[in-house]
Amino acid sequence: MTGPILLASYPKSGNTWLRALLAGLEHGRVDINDMLEQFTIASSRLLFDQVMGVDSSDLTDAEVHRVRADMLRRVAEFERDRWFLKVHDARLPATPDAEDLFPADVVRAVVHIVRDPRDVAVSWAHHTGRSIDVAIAQLADPGQTLARSTIRMSRQLPQFTSNWSRHVESWLGATDLAVHLVRYEDLLADTTGALTAIAAFLGLEVDEAAIASTVEAASFSALRAQEERNGFRERRHNQDRFFRRGVAGGWRDTLSAAQTARIESDHGPMMLRLGYLP
Amino acid sequence: MSDDDLLLCGWRVRSGLPLPDLLPWTGDDRPPDIWVRVGTPPERLDDLVERTPFAQIDASGRVLLTLPVVARYLITGGREVVVEPAPEAEAPEIQGFLLGTVFGYLVHQRGLLPLHAACLSIGGMTLALMGVSGAGKSSLAAQLVKRGHRLVSDDVCVLDTTRPDGPWVRPTFPRLKLWRDTLDALGIAANGLERNRQGREKYLCRTIAARAFSPEPARLGGLVLLAEGIPGRPPRLERLRGFTAQSTVAEHIYRRRQALALGRDSALFTAAAMVAAKVPVWALEPPRDLNALDALAEVVEELARR
Protein backbone atom coordinates (compact mmCIF):
# COMPACT_ATOMS: atom_id res chain seq x y z
CA MET A 1 0.00 0.00 0.00
CA THR A 2 1.17 3.53 -0.83
CA GLY A 3 -0.74 6.64 0.18
CA PRO A 4 -1.25 9.58 -2.16
CA ILE A 5 0.72 12.81 -2.31
CA LEU A 6 -1.92 15.55 -2.31
CA LEU A 7 -1.56 18.69 -4.42
CA ALA A 8 -3.91 20.83 -2.36
CA SER A 9 -5.10 24.31 -3.17
CA TYR A 10 -8.04 26.64 -3.29
CA PRO A 11 -9.15 26.89 -6.98
CA LYS A 12 -7.18 29.23 -9.27
CA SER A 13 -4.09 29.20 -7.08
CA GLY A 14 -1.58 27.52 -9.39
CA ASN A 15 -2.54 23.85 -9.02
CA THR A 16 -2.46 23.31 -12.79
CA TRP A 17 0.99 24.87 -13.07
CA LEU A 18 2.22 22.76 -10.15
CA ARG A 19 0.90 19.64 -11.91
CA ALA A 20 2.63 20.66 -15.14
CA LEU A 21 5.93 21.04 -13.27
CA LEU A 22 5.54 17.69 -11.52
CA ALA A 23 4.55 16.04 -14.81
CA GLY A 24 7.87 17.20 -16.21
CA LEU A 25 9.78 15.71 -13.30
CA GLU A 26 7.76 12.49 -12.99
CA HIS A 27 7.06 11.71 -16.64
CA GLY A 28 9.79 13.62 -18.46
CA ARG A 29 7.33 15.59 -20.57
CA VAL A 30 4.55 18.10 -20.14
CA ASP A 31 1.26 17.58 -21.99
CA ILE A 32 -1.53 19.66 -20.51
CA ASN A 33 -4.16 17.22 -21.76
CA ASP A 34 -2.55 14.24 -20.00
CA MET A 35 -2.47 15.86 -16.59
CA LEU A 36 -5.99 14.82 -15.58
CA GLU A 37 -4.91 11.19 -15.83
CA GLN A 38 -1.46 11.70 -14.31
CA PHE A 39 -2.86 13.66 -11.38
CA THR A 40 -6.44 12.52 -10.91
CA ILE A 41 -8.58 14.82 -8.82
CA ALA A 42 -9.56 13.34 -5.46
CA SER A 43 -13.19 14.24 -6.21
CA SER A 44 -13.28 12.34 -9.53
CA ARG A 45 -16.70 10.76 -10.05
CA LEU A 46 -15.13 8.12 -12.30
CA LEU A 47 -12.63 7.05 -9.65
CA PHE A 48 -15.40 6.80 -7.04
CA ASP A 49 -17.70 4.78 -9.30
CA GLN A 50 -14.97 2.36 -10.33
CA VAL A 51 -13.71 1.71 -6.83
CA MET A 52 -17.00 1.64 -4.93
CA GLY A 53 -19.10 -0.52 -7.25
CA VAL A 54 -22.13 1.80 -7.28
CA ASP A 55 -22.88 4.91 -9.32
CA SER A 56 -22.29 8.05 -7.31
CA SER A 57 -25.03 9.68 -9.40
CA ASP A 58 -27.50 7.33 -7.67
CA LEU A 59 -26.24 8.40 -4.24
CA THR A 60 -27.01 11.50 -2.22
CA ASP A 61 -24.19 13.98 -1.58
CA ALA A 62 -24.15 12.91 2.08
CA GLU A 63 -23.84 9.22 1.15
CA VAL A 64 -20.93 10.01 -1.15
CA HIS A 65 -19.19 12.26 1.33
CA ARG A 66 -19.38 9.72 4.13
CA VAL A 67 -17.27 7.17 2.26
CA ARG A 68 -14.70 9.28 0.43
CA ALA A 69 -11.91 8.60 2.94
CA ASP A 70 -12.69 4.92 2.57
CA MET A 71 -12.39 5.24 -1.22
CA LEU A 72 -8.92 6.76 -0.80
CA ARG A 73 -7.89 3.84 1.40
CA ARG A 74 -9.08 1.37 -1.19
CA VAL A 75 -7.16 3.06 -4.01
CA ALA A 76 -4.04 3.26 -1.82
CA GLU A 77 -4.25 -0.51 -1.20
CA PHE A 78 -3.58 -1.15 -4.87
CA GLU A 79 -0.90 1.49 -5.40
CA ARG A 80 2.73 0.46 -5.19
CA ASP A 81 4.54 3.52 -6.54
CA ARG A 82 4.41 7.20 -5.78
CA TRP A 83 1.07 8.70 -6.88
CA PHE A 84 -0.54 12.11 -6.75
CA LEU A 85 -4.03 13.50 -6.29
CA LYS A 86 -5.17 17.01 -7.07
CA VAL A 87 -7.38 18.36 -4.27
CA HIS A 88 -9.62 21.41 -4.03
CA ASP A 89 -11.52 20.23 -0.94
CA ALA A 90 -10.81 22.03 2.30
CA ARG A 91 -9.65 19.68 5.03
CA LEU A 92 -12.79 20.50 6.95
CA PRO A 93 -15.89 18.47 7.79
CA ALA A 94 -18.63 19.32 5.27
CA THR A 95 -21.27 18.27 7.79
CA PRO A 96 -20.97 18.07 11.58
CA ASP A 97 -20.78 14.26 11.56
CA ALA A 98 -18.50 13.99 8.51
CA GLU A 99 -15.24 12.11 8.80
CA ASP A 100 -11.84 13.45 7.82
CA LEU A 101 -11.62 13.15 4.02
CA PHE A 102 -7.83 12.89 4.13
CA PRO A 103 -6.84 10.84 7.18
CA ALA A 104 -3.20 10.93 8.29
CA ASP A 105 -2.87 7.16 8.07
CA VAL A 106 -3.56 7.29 4.31
CA VAL A 107 -2.04 10.55 3.08
CA ARG A 108 1.70 10.36 2.43
CA ALA A 109 2.45 14.07 2.00
CA VAL A 110 0.86 17.33 0.89
CA VAL A 111 2.14 20.08 -1.39
CA HIS A 112 -0.05 23.06 -0.55
CA ILE A 113 -0.04 25.94 -3.00
CA VAL A 114 -1.52 29.32 -2.06
CA ARG A 115 -1.99 32.56 -3.99
CA ASP A 116 -2.91 36.14 -3.14
CA PRO A 117 -6.74 36.10 -2.83
CA ARG A 118 -6.95 39.37 -4.80
CA ASP A 119 -5.48 37.53 -7.82
CA VAL A 120 -7.56 34.43 -7.05
CA ALA A 121 -10.76 36.51 -7.15
CA VAL A 122 -9.95 37.92 -10.61
CA SER A 123 -8.97 34.51 -11.95
CA TRP A 124 -12.06 32.83 -10.45
CA ALA A 125 -14.30 35.46 -12.07
CA HIS A 126 -12.76 34.68 -15.47
CA HIS A 127 -12.94 30.92 -14.85
CA THR A 128 -16.61 30.91 -13.92
CA GLY A 129 -17.72 33.65 -16.29
CA ARG A 130 -19.26 35.61 -13.42
CA SER A 131 -18.58 39.13 -12.22
CA ILE A 132 -15.67 39.95 -9.93
CA ASP A 133 -18.12 40.91 -7.18
CA VAL A 134 -19.71 37.45 -7.35
CA ALA A 135 -16.24 35.89 -7.21
CA ILE A 136 -15.35 37.97 -4.16
CA ALA A 137 -18.58 36.91 -2.45
CA GLN A 138 -17.82 33.24 -3.19
CA LEU A 139 -14.30 33.58 -1.79
CA ALA A 140 -15.92 34.88 1.41
CA ASP A 141 -18.71 32.27 1.65
CA PRO A 142 -18.01 29.82 4.50
CA GLY A 143 -20.45 27.33 2.95
CA GLN A 144 -18.97 27.37 -0.56
CA THR A 145 -19.07 23.97 -2.29
CA LEU A 146 -17.82 23.22 -5.82
CA ALA A 147 -19.67 20.95 -8.26
CA ARG A 148 -22.77 20.84 -6.07
CA SER A 149 -25.66 20.72 -8.45
CA THR A 150 -28.96 18.93 -8.34
CA ILE A 151 -30.10 19.58 -11.89
CA ARG A 152 -27.21 18.24 -13.91
CA MET A 153 -24.47 15.70 -13.75
CA SER A 154 -21.02 16.97 -12.87
CA ARG A 155 -17.93 14.91 -13.61
CA GLN A 156 -16.78 15.73 -10.13
CA LEU A 157 -18.19 14.98 -6.73
CA PRO A 158 -19.14 17.97 -4.58
CA GLN A 159 -16.14 19.58 -2.91
CA PHE A 160 -16.58 21.64 0.22
CA THR A 161 -14.05 24.48 0.04
CA SER A 162 -15.55 26.87 2.58
CA ASN A 163 -14.14 30.39 2.23
CA TRP A 164 -10.59 31.21 1.13
CA SER A 165 -9.25 31.91 4.64
CA ARG A 166 -10.72 28.77 6.19
CA HIS A 167 -9.57 26.69 3.22
CA VAL A 168 -5.98 27.89 3.54
CA GLU A 169 -6.07 27.48 7.33
CA SER A 170 -7.37 23.91 7.02
CA TRP A 171 -4.20 22.85 5.19
CA LEU A 172 -1.75 25.18 6.97
CA GLY A 173 -2.99 23.82 10.27
CA ALA A 174 -2.82 20.15 9.25
CA THR A 175 -0.06 19.39 11.77
CA ASP A 176 -0.71 15.64 11.58
CA LEU A 177 0.32 15.64 7.89
CA ALA A 178 3.64 16.42 6.21
CA VAL A 179 2.74 19.66 4.41
CA HIS A 180 5.04 21.69 2.17
CA LEU A 181 3.71 25.21 1.59
CA VAL A 182 4.39 26.95 -1.73
CA ARG A 183 3.32 30.49 -2.53
CA TYR A 184 2.36 30.98 -6.19
CA GLU A 185 4.25 34.26 -6.14
CA ASP A 186 7.47 32.55 -4.98
CA LEU A 187 7.07 29.82 -7.58
CA LEU A 188 6.80 32.56 -10.20
CA ALA A 189 9.73 34.62 -8.91
CA ASP A 190 12.15 31.70 -8.66
CA THR A 191 10.62 28.65 -10.34
CA THR A 192 13.87 26.70 -10.30
CA GLY A 193 14.46 27.28 -6.60
CA ALA A 194 10.87 26.53 -5.56
CA LEU A 195 10.69 23.40 -7.72
CA THR A 196 14.02 22.16 -6.35
CA ALA A 197 12.62 22.55 -2.83
CA ILE A 198 9.42 20.65 -3.77
CA ALA A 199 11.50 17.85 -5.31
CA ALA A 200 13.62 17.64 -2.16
CA PHE A 201 10.51 17.56 0.06
CA LEU A 202 9.02 14.72 -2.02
CA GLY A 203 12.34 12.85 -2.23
CA LEU A 204 12.35 12.91 -6.04
CA GLU A 205 15.71 11.99 -7.49
CA VAL A 206 16.17 14.67 -10.12
CA ASP A 207 19.21 16.61 -11.25
CA GLU A 208 19.61 20.25 -12.20
CA ALA A 209 19.20 19.53 -15.90
CA ALA A 210 15.83 17.84 -15.34
CA ILE A 211 14.65 20.78 -13.25
CA ALA A 212 15.82 23.25 -15.88
CA SER A 213 14.14 21.48 -18.80
CA THR A 214 10.93 21.08 -16.78
CA VAL A 215 10.84 24.77 -15.86
CA GLU A 216 11.16 25.53 -19.57
CA ALA A 217 8.55 22.99 -20.71
CA ALA A 218 6.06 24.16 -18.07
CA SER A 219 6.63 27.89 -18.52
CA PHE A 220 3.54 30.02 -18.94
CA SER A 221 4.27 30.69 -22.61
CA ALA A 222 4.84 26.98 -23.30
CA LEU A 223 1.57 25.98 -21.59
CA ARG A 224 -0.34 28.70 -23.38
CA ALA A 225 1.15 27.58 -26.71
CA GLN A 226 -0.04 24.02 -26.00
CA GLU A 227 -3.54 25.32 -25.31
CA GLU A 228 -3.52 27.37 -28.53
CA ARG A 229 -2.44 24.30 -30.50
CA ASN A 230 -4.44 21.47 -28.92
CA GLY A 231 -7.05 23.00 -26.64
CA PHE A 232 -7.25 22.17 -22.94
CA ARG A 233 -9.72 19.67 -21.54
CA GLU A 234 -9.87 21.42 -18.17
CA ARG A 235 -10.96 24.71 -19.66
CA ARG A 236 -14.55 25.75 -19.13
CA HIS A 237 -16.80 26.52 -22.08
CA ASN A 238 -17.32 30.09 -21.06
CA GLN A 239 -13.57 30.73 -21.12
CA ASP A 240 -11.63 31.95 -24.15
CA ARG A 241 -8.49 30.46 -22.71
CA PHE A 242 -7.43 28.81 -19.47
CA PHE A 243 -3.84 30.09 -19.42
CA ARG A 244 -4.77 33.73 -19.29
CA ARG A 245 -2.04 35.89 -17.75
CA GLY A 246 0.17 33.89 -15.42
CA VAL A 247 1.30 36.88 -13.39
CA ALA A 248 1.34 37.90 -9.75
CA GLY A 249 -0.31 41.17 -8.76
CA GLY A 250 -2.54 41.40 -11.83
CA TRP A 251 -5.34 42.47 -9.49
CA ARG A 252 -3.75 45.94 -9.29
CA ASP A 253 -4.97 46.91 -12.77
CA THR A 254 -8.28 45.04 -12.48
CA LEU A 255 -9.89 45.42 -9.05
CA SER A 256 -11.55 48.64 -7.94
CA ALA A 257 -10.45 50.16 -4.64
CA ALA A 258 -13.69 48.99 -3.05
CA GLN A 259 -13.20 45.42 -4.31
CA THR A 260 -9.63 45.35 -3.01
CA ALA A 261 -10.77 46.69 0.35
CA ARG A 262 -13.49 44.08 0.60
CA ILE A 263 -11.07 41.17 0.02
CA GLU A 264 -8.56 42.62 2.47
CA SER A 265 -11.32 43.02 5.05
CA ASP A 266 -12.65 39.47 4.43
CA HIS A 267 -9.25 37.80 4.61
CA GLY A 268 -6.92 40.28 6.35
CA PRO A 269 -5.53 38.01 9.08
CA MET A 270 -4.70 35.15 6.70
CA MET A 271 -3.27 37.53 4.06
CA LEU A 272 -1.05 39.02 6.73
CA ARG A 273 0.07 35.58 7.83
CA LEU A 274 1.05 34.65 4.27
CA GLY A 275 2.81 37.95 3.61
CA TYR A 276 0.18 39.34 1.21
CA LEU A 277 -0.39 42.41 3.42
CA PRO A 278 2.38 44.50 4.93
CA MET B 1 -48.66 -14.88 -10.04
CA SER B 2 -47.07 -16.32 -13.16
CA ASP B 3 -49.35 -14.06 -15.25
CA ASP B 4 -47.44 -11.16 -13.75
CA ASP B 5 -44.00 -12.39 -14.81
CA LEU B 6 -41.73 -9.89 -16.48
CA LEU B 7 -39.22 -9.72 -19.34
CA LEU B 8 -35.61 -8.65 -18.88
CA CYS B 9 -32.89 -9.44 -21.45
CA GLY B 10 -34.91 -12.41 -22.65
CA TRP B 11 -35.16 -13.80 -19.12
CA ARG B 12 -38.41 -14.57 -17.35
CA VAL B 13 -38.47 -12.62 -14.09
CA ARG B 14 -40.82 -13.33 -11.19
CA SER B 15 -40.82 -10.47 -8.72
CA GLY B 16 -42.35 -9.95 -5.30
CA LEU B 17 -41.74 -6.23 -5.78
CA PRO B 18 -43.49 -4.17 -8.44
CA LEU B 19 -41.08 -3.41 -11.30
CA PRO B 20 -43.03 -1.04 -13.55
CA ASP B 21 -40.03 -0.52 -15.85
CA LEU B 22 -40.10 -4.10 -17.15
CA LEU B 23 -42.36 -5.36 -19.95
CA PRO B 24 -44.67 -8.31 -19.21
CA TRP B 25 -43.40 -11.77 -20.05
CA THR B 26 -45.07 -13.06 -23.24
CA GLY B 27 -42.79 -15.99 -23.98
CA ASP B 28 -43.11 -19.74 -23.37
CA ASP B 29 -44.15 -21.36 -20.08
CA ARG B 30 -40.62 -22.04 -18.87
CA PRO B 31 -39.94 -21.65 -15.15
CA PRO B 32 -38.67 -18.21 -14.12
CA ASP B 33 -35.00 -17.51 -14.84
CA ILE B 34 -34.72 -14.88 -12.11
CA TRP B 35 -36.59 -14.57 -8.81
CA VAL B 36 -36.86 -11.32 -6.90
CA ARG B 37 -38.11 -11.91 -3.37
CA VAL B 38 -38.66 -9.67 -0.37
CA GLY B 39 -36.77 -11.13 2.57
CA THR B 40 -33.91 -10.60 4.96
CA PRO B 41 -30.37 -10.98 3.62
CA PRO B 42 -27.61 -11.75 6.13
CA GLU B 43 -26.02 -8.78 7.88
CA ARG B 44 -22.69 -9.63 6.27
CA LEU B 45 -21.08 -12.25 4.09
CA ASP B 46 -18.04 -14.30 5.08
CA ASP B 47 -14.98 -15.28 3.08
CA LEU B 48 -14.93 -11.98 1.19
CA VAL B 49 -12.99 -11.40 -2.01
CA GLU B 50 -14.16 -7.77 -2.40
CA ARG B 51 -15.54 -5.31 0.08
CA THR B 52 -16.56 -1.69 -0.38
CA PRO B 53 -18.84 0.30 1.96
CA PHE B 54 -21.70 -0.75 -0.37
CA ALA B 55 -20.82 -4.11 -1.86
CA GLN B 56 -19.53 -7.37 -0.40
CA ILE B 57 -18.61 -10.28 -2.65
CA ASP B 58 -17.83 -13.70 -1.21
CA ALA B 59 -15.71 -16.51 -2.61
CA SER B 60 -18.80 -18.33 -3.93
CA GLY B 61 -19.72 -15.27 -6.02
CA ARG B 62 -22.61 -14.04 -3.91
CA VAL B 63 -23.01 -10.27 -3.74
CA LEU B 64 -24.52 -8.29 -0.85
CA LEU B 65 -25.32 -4.71 -1.76
CA THR B 66 -26.17 -2.36 1.12
CA LEU B 67 -27.68 1.11 0.67
CA PRO B 68 -28.64 2.07 4.23
CA VAL B 69 -31.68 4.28 3.52
CA VAL B 70 -32.80 2.38 0.40
CA ALA B 71 -32.46 -1.40 0.69
CA ARG B 72 -30.19 -4.39 1.11
CA TYR B 73 -29.91 -6.85 -1.77
CA LEU B 74 -28.44 -10.36 -1.80
CA ILE B 75 -27.68 -11.52 -5.34
CA THR B 76 -27.01 -15.22 -5.87
CA GLY B 77 -26.09 -17.29 -8.90
CA GLY B 78 -27.61 -14.93 -11.43
CA ARG B 79 -30.96 -16.39 -10.40
CA GLU B 80 -32.12 -14.89 -7.15
CA VAL B 81 -32.30 -11.46 -5.54
CA VAL B 82 -33.46 -11.14 -1.94
CA VAL B 83 -34.44 -7.55 -1.16
CA GLU B 84 -35.00 -5.94 2.20
CA PRO B 85 -36.32 -2.40 1.64
CA ALA B 86 -35.53 0.26 4.23
CA PRO B 87 -38.64 1.69 5.93
CA GLU B 88 -38.04 5.21 4.65
CA ALA B 89 -37.23 4.20 1.05
CA GLU B 90 -39.46 5.16 -1.87
CA ALA B 91 -40.31 2.62 -4.55
CA PRO B 92 -38.32 4.29 -7.39
CA GLU B 93 -35.18 4.22 -5.22
CA ILE B 94 -35.54 0.51 -4.43
CA GLN B 95 -36.28 -0.28 -8.10
CA GLY B 96 -33.51 2.00 -9.32
CA PHE B 97 -30.70 0.09 -7.63
CA LEU B 98 -32.38 -3.22 -8.51
CA LEU B 99 -32.40 -2.40 -12.23
CA GLY B 100 -28.97 -0.73 -12.09
CA THR B 101 -26.18 -2.11 -9.95
CA VAL B 102 -28.02 -5.30 -8.88
CA PHE B 103 -28.91 -6.02 -12.49
CA GLY B 104 -25.24 -5.57 -13.45
CA TYR B 105 -24.18 -8.22 -10.93
CA LEU B 106 -26.89 -10.60 -12.19
CA VAL B 107 -25.57 -10.21 -15.74
CA HIS B 108 -22.02 -10.95 -14.60
CA GLN B 109 -23.15 -13.97 -12.60
CA ARG B 110 -24.99 -15.23 -15.71
CA GLY B 111 -21.81 -14.99 -17.78
CA LEU B 112 -22.81 -12.25 -20.23
CA LEU B 113 -20.99 -9.01 -21.01
CA PRO B 114 -22.61 -5.84 -19.61
CA LEU B 115 -21.17 -2.64 -21.07
CA HIS B 116 -21.63 0.83 -19.63
CA ALA B 117 -23.48 1.94 -22.72
CA ALA B 118 -26.79 3.09 -24.11
CA CYS B 119 -27.97 1.17 -27.14
CA LEU B 120 -30.14 2.23 -30.06
CA SER B 121 -31.46 0.80 -33.26
CA ILE B 122 -30.93 3.29 -36.06
CA GLY B 123 -32.34 2.34 -39.44
CA GLY B 124 -31.87 -1.34 -38.70
CA MET B 125 -28.33 -0.89 -37.36
CA THR B 126 -27.82 -1.49 -33.62
CA LEU B 127 -25.24 0.87 -32.12
CA ALA B 128 -24.01 1.00 -28.52
CA LEU B 129 -22.90 4.36 -27.10
CA MET B 130 -20.23 3.68 -24.46
CA GLY B 131 -19.04 6.18 -21.90
CA VAL B 132 -18.38 6.86 -18.25
CA SER B 133 -21.05 8.40 -16.02
CA GLY B 134 -21.59 11.95 -17.22
CA ALA B 135 -20.29 11.34 -20.75
CA GLY B 136 -23.75 12.06 -22.15
CA LYS B 137 -24.98 8.57 -23.11
CA SER B 138 -28.55 9.04 -21.95
CA SER B 139 -28.82 12.59 -23.31
CA LEU B 140 -27.70 11.47 -26.76
CA ALA B 141 -29.94 8.40 -26.56
CA ALA B 142 -32.91 10.62 -25.73
CA GLN B 143 -32.07 12.91 -28.63
CA LEU B 144 -31.88 9.94 -31.01
CA VAL B 145 -35.23 8.67 -29.69
CA LYS B 146 -36.65 12.13 -30.33
CA ARG B 147 -35.40 11.84 -33.91
CA GLY B 148 -37.42 8.65 -34.36
CA HIS B 149 -34.90 5.91 -33.58
CA ARG B 150 -35.53 2.94 -31.33
CA LEU B 151 -34.24 2.42 -27.81
CA VAL B 152 -32.64 -0.89 -26.87
CA SER B 153 -31.13 0.05 -23.50
CA ASP B 154 -30.22 3.12 -21.50
CA ASP B 155 -27.33 2.76 -19.07
CA VAL B 156 -26.27 -0.89 -19.40
CA CYS B 157 -26.03 -2.72 -22.72
CA VAL B 158 -26.02 -6.51 -22.30
CA LEU B 159 -24.06 -8.47 -24.92
CA ASP B 160 -24.17 -12.17 -25.61
CA THR B 161 -20.79 -13.05 -27.12
CA THR B 162 -21.38 -16.78 -27.38
CA ARG B 163 -22.99 -16.73 -30.82
CA PRO B 164 -20.82 -17.47 -33.86
CA ASP B 165 -22.16 -14.58 -35.95
CA GLY B 166 -20.91 -11.90 -33.57
CA PRO B 167 -22.13 -10.17 -30.43
CA TRP B 168 -25.90 -9.90 -29.92
CA VAL B 169 -27.62 -7.29 -27.79
CA ARG B 170 -30.25 -8.37 -25.26
CA PRO B 171 -32.63 -5.40 -24.88
CA THR B 172 -33.14 -4.36 -21.25
CA PHE B 173 -36.19 -2.23 -20.52
CA PRO B 174 -37.92 0.95 -21.71
CA ARG B 175 -36.67 3.66 -19.40
CA LEU B 176 -34.33 6.64 -19.74
CA LYS B 177 -32.77 8.36 -16.74
CA LEU B 178 -32.34 12.04 -17.56
CA TRP B 179 -31.12 15.00 -15.56
CA ARG B 180 -33.15 18.16 -15.47
CA ASP B 181 -30.84 20.10 -17.80
CA THR B 182 -31.26 17.45 -20.51
CA LEU B 183 -35.05 17.42 -20.08
CA ASP B 184 -35.03 21.20 -20.54
CA ALA B 185 -32.80 20.97 -23.63
CA LEU B 186 -35.10 18.35 -25.16
CA GLY B 187 -38.27 20.22 -24.23
CA ILE B 188 -39.59 17.43 -21.98
CA ALA B 189 -41.64 18.54 -18.98
CA ALA B 190 -40.39 17.25 -15.63
CA ASN B 191 -43.91 17.51 -14.18
CA GLY B 192 -45.24 14.12 -13.18
CA LEU B 193 -41.97 12.26 -13.73
CA GLU B 194 -40.57 10.20 -10.84
CA ARG B 195 -37.13 11.04 -9.48
CA ASN B 196 -34.50 8.34 -9.07
CA ARG B 197 -33.57 9.63 -5.59
CA GLN B 198 -35.44 11.96 -3.28
CA GLY B 199 -34.19 15.52 -3.56
CA ARG B 200 -32.30 15.14 -6.86
CA GLU B 201 -33.44 16.23 -10.29
CA LYS B 202 -32.64 13.02 -12.10
CA TYR B 203 -35.87 11.75 -13.59
CA LEU B 204 -37.22 8.45 -14.88
CA CYS B 205 -38.70 8.84 -18.37
CA ARG B 206 -40.89 5.84 -19.13
CA THR B 207 -43.51 7.01 -21.59
CA ILE B 208 -41.07 8.34 -24.18
CA ALA B 209 -38.84 5.29 -23.78
CA ALA B 210 -41.76 2.84 -24.02
CA ARG B 211 -42.98 4.28 -27.33
CA ALA B 212 -39.51 3.83 -28.83
CA PHE B 213 -38.46 0.56 -27.22
CA SER B 214 -37.27 -2.33 -29.34
CA PRO B 215 -37.57 -5.57 -27.33
CA GLU B 216 -36.14 -7.94 -29.97
CA PRO B 217 -32.54 -9.19 -29.61
CA ALA B 218 -30.34 -7.77 -32.36
CA ARG B 219 -26.85 -8.24 -33.70
CA LEU B 220 -24.56 -5.42 -32.59
CA GLY B 221 -23.47 -3.30 -35.54
CA GLY B 222 -21.00 -0.94 -33.91
CA LEU B 223 -19.71 0.69 -30.74
CA VAL B 224 -19.21 4.41 -30.25
CA LEU B 225 -17.15 5.68 -27.33
CA LEU B 226 -18.39 9.04 -26.09
CA ALA B 227 -15.02 10.44 -25.07
CA GLU B 228 -14.45 13.69 -23.27
CA GLY B 229 -14.35 16.61 -25.66
CA ILE B 230 -11.54 19.12 -25.40
CA PRO B 231 -12.65 22.76 -25.42
CA GLY B 232 -10.90 24.63 -28.20
CA ARG B 233 -10.65 21.54 -30.36
CA PRO B 234 -13.30 20.69 -32.96
CA PRO B 235 -15.35 17.49 -32.43
CA ARG B 236 -13.43 14.45 -33.61
CA LEU B 237 -14.46 11.04 -34.85
CA GLU B 238 -11.84 8.32 -34.99
CA ARG B 239 -12.00 4.62 -35.79
CA LEU B 240 -10.22 2.60 -33.10
CA ARG B 241 -8.44 -0.57 -34.07
CA GLY B 242 -6.58 -3.51 -32.59
CA PHE B 243 -5.55 -3.32 -28.97
CA THR B 244 -6.92 0.21 -28.54
CA ALA B 245 -10.38 -0.93 -29.64
CA GLN B 246 -10.20 -3.99 -27.41
CA SER B 247 -9.05 -2.13 -24.31
CA THR B 248 -11.67 0.58 -24.88
CA VAL B 249 -14.39 -2.07 -24.81
CA ALA B 250 -12.80 -3.70 -21.74
CA GLU B 251 -12.59 -0.38 -19.89
CA HIS B 252 -16.33 0.12 -20.31
CA ILE B 253 -17.42 -3.15 -18.78
CA TYR B 254 -20.08 -2.29 -16.23
CA ARG B 255 -18.86 -2.87 -12.63
CA ARG B 256 -15.58 -4.11 -14.05
CA ARG B 257 -13.56 -4.09 -10.87
CA GLN B 258 -16.21 -6.04 -8.99
CA ALA B 259 -16.56 -8.47 -11.93
CA LEU B 260 -12.85 -9.23 -11.66
CA ALA B 261 -13.47 -10.09 -8.00
CA LEU B 262 -16.18 -12.48 -9.25
CA GLY B 263 -13.42 -14.30 -11.14
CA ARG B 264 -14.49 -13.14 -14.58
CA ASP B 265 -11.14 -11.74 -15.75
CA SER B 266 -10.32 -14.21 -18.51
CA ALA B 267 -13.94 -14.55 -19.68
CA LEU B 268 -14.32 -10.78 -19.91
CA PHE B 269 -10.97 -10.37 -21.66
CA THR B 270 -12.01 -12.94 -24.26
CA ALA B 271 -15.45 -11.39 -24.70
CA ALA B 272 -14.07 -7.85 -25.11
CA ALA B 273 -11.53 -9.12 -27.67
CA MET B 274 -14.29 -10.89 -29.61
CA VAL B 275 -16.48 -7.78 -29.67
CA ALA B 276 -13.63 -5.54 -30.85
CA ALA B 277 -12.69 -8.06 -33.55
CA LYS B 278 -16.21 -8.44 -34.95
CA VAL B 279 -17.64 -4.95 -34.62
CA PRO B 280 -16.23 -1.53 -35.56
CA VAL B 281 -15.35 0.72 -32.61
CA TRP B 282 -15.27 4.51 -32.95
CA ALA B 283 -14.29 7.23 -30.52
CA LEU B 284 -16.33 10.41 -30.73
CA GLU B 285 -15.07 13.52 -28.97
CA PRO B 286 -18.23 15.59 -28.74
CA PRO B 287 -18.50 19.24 -27.87
CA ARG B 288 -19.70 19.30 -24.25
CA ASP B 289 -22.78 21.31 -24.90
CA LEU B 290 -26.41 20.26 -24.72
CA ASN B 291 -27.15 22.62 -27.63
CA ALA B 292 -24.98 20.41 -29.82
CA LEU B 293 -27.04 17.24 -29.23
CA ASP B 294 -28.77 17.46 -32.60
CA ALA B 295 -25.48 17.74 -34.49
CA LEU B 296 -24.09 14.87 -32.45
CA ALA B 297 -27.12 12.73 -33.26
CA GLU B 298 -26.47 13.38 -36.95
CA VAL B 299 -22.91 12.09 -36.59
CA VAL B 300 -24.22 8.88 -35.01
CA GLU B 301 -26.88 8.50 -37.74
CA GLU B 302 -24.16 8.86 -40.36
CA LEU B 303 -22.14 6.10 -38.62
CA ALA B 304 -25.20 3.86 -38.67
CA ARG B 305 -25.41 4.26 -42.45
CA ARG B 306 -21.82 3.10 -43.02
Describe it.
The complex is a heterodimer of chains A (278) and B (306). Chain A is α/β, with parallel strands linked by helices and 278 residues long. In chain A, 46% of the residues lie in helices and 8% in strands. Chain A has 13 helices and 6 strands. Chain A has a 4-stranded parallel beta sheet, sandwiched between helices. In chain A, strands 4-5 form a two-stranded antiparallel sheet. The radius of gyration of chain A is 18 Å and the shape is globular. Chain B is an alpha+beta fold. In chain B, strands 3-1-2-4-9-8-7-6-5 form a 9-stranded mixed beta sheet, with helices on one face. Chain B has helices at residues 91-109, 137-146, 180-186, 207-212, 242-251, 256-261, 265-278, 293-305; strands at residues 6-8, 11-15, 23-24, 34-38, 48-51, 55-58, 63-67, 71-76, 80-85, 113-122, 125-130, 150-153, 156-160, 168-170, 176-179, 194-195, 202-205, 218-226, 236-240, 281-285. In chain B, strand 6 (55-58) and strand 7 form a beta hairpin. Classes of the chains: A alpha/beta (278), B alpha+beta (306). Chain A binds chain B through residues 33, 45-46, 49-60, 63, 66-67, 70, 74, 150-155, 227, 230-233, 235-237, 239, 241, and chain B through 50, 52-55, 65, 67-69, 96-97, 100-101, 132-134, 179-182, 196-197, 199-202, 228-233, 255-258, 288-289.
